[in-house]
Here is the input.
Amino acid sequence: MSLKDRIIMAYARTKITSRKVSEDVENPLHDWVQLKVRNAFKRDDGFRKALGRDALGDIDRKTFEEYQLYKFRKQMAYVMENSPFYQKKYGEAGIKPEDIRTMADLDKVPLTEPDDLAEEPFLFLCLSQSKIARAFSTSGTSGKPKRLFYTNDDLLNIVDSIAAALRSAGLKSSETLHIMFPAVVAWDPSLMLESACKVAGLNSVVCSDVNVDEQIRVMREQKTKVIIGLTSFIYRVTVLARDKYDLRSLGLKAIICSSEPLSEAVRHEIEEAWGCKCLSQYGLTEMGLATTIECHVQTGLHINEADFMVEVIDPDTGRKLPPGEEGELIWTSLSFQGSPLLRYRSYDISKFILPPCDCGHVTVGKIGKPKGRRNAATKIGLGEHIFPTLFDEAIMKVHGVLNYQLVLTKPSFRDHLHFTVEYNGDMAKGKEEVLKALMELEEIRSGLDNDLLDPIEVEMMEVSLEFTPKMKPIIDQRKRFDS
Here is the structure.
């Protein structure tokens, strides 16, 4: 590393709040969020004025929500001054930052649609491009690709959030993080994770090899303590390695599954094989990825509420829902400067859970594990909306299943369900177990009982030597289908 690079790295590390939290504290994520609020109180006269006090004292939930409202108003004023999109949108709505006095007032602020960002990304840009350190485009797997712009401070915020999440999973500076994203994914989070670890002073190793033996060799050599990676890739390595190696002997602290949903069936298989907690990480690409992580209690994913505000709305009416009610997640970036998004629709279905949590969090809220994207839901049989997670829980609990895909057709008045299942083991036995698991689903049984489904068809396929990211779980080819 050159002298210039060392100076840049040293400066970056001074900006990382997570480095100021002791590794010995019981809940690093909780302490990190609290420290960020305390730093804001020290440095921001506007925040102190908004609170109307000279000393912060204990940060309870009420104080934290006042912090979020202040940050929201400040961010709203910022985008109204600098973003052509928000200048027009909020001007037409006749809404101003000072109109937002309580959380209930957020309903007055118009929602931002993903299509708005996809069609006119430069209208969201709040700074000259000379001040942008990096532009990033989403893969477009769930819609049109979207382009985001980040300043150096934005990137440091993301790094800080990643480091805090890794520490909350138990990773210490003397230990190694094994980064496990295959090279075939449309985007490569390994680079950001590796960079985050360098800046945050954490050890990491990237291994994208699809060869199971190579993965285990690297883990042993590097004395890996925490794994983070693509859910389906981690699961694949687990299924193919557990009969060859004593995975528990590696002594892992935690495995973090990212970038894809984690079903309870898959979690169970991973935890049984490795002998450690398997945690879910959920992030929205438009929010910089590192937004939530599950704690060891595993009753929801803690939100980085110091930098992001999460609401839940009724997706049909737009009405804000109270904590505990399921609806669509709405995100606001409270700290980004490049192209911040306010009240951005994710179309992901979940709920907001107020603190405290049994892990020790008393300030930061959680979201329930997202069920899936609203437009990923479909109907079968009697017409109930179902998400792919329904079949994940049924099929992935069958020992030896690596992947599956459902193709829906409607050759007559009945729905026809054809499952293709990648399986490691005796094919006849596997098919029998998959069919049995599917028949345990009420949605399947009621559809068959009411003559609305054809007999379920299951096709088994052998394990592929090449890894491909998790197949699109449901392909709906029905022509006569009322959605």
Q: What stands out?
A: DSSP finds 14 helices and 21 strands in the chain. The two ends are 57 Å apart (CA to CA). Residues 377-476 form a domain with the GMP Synthetase; Chain A, domain 3 fold (CATH 3.30.300.30). The chain has a mean pLDDT of 90.
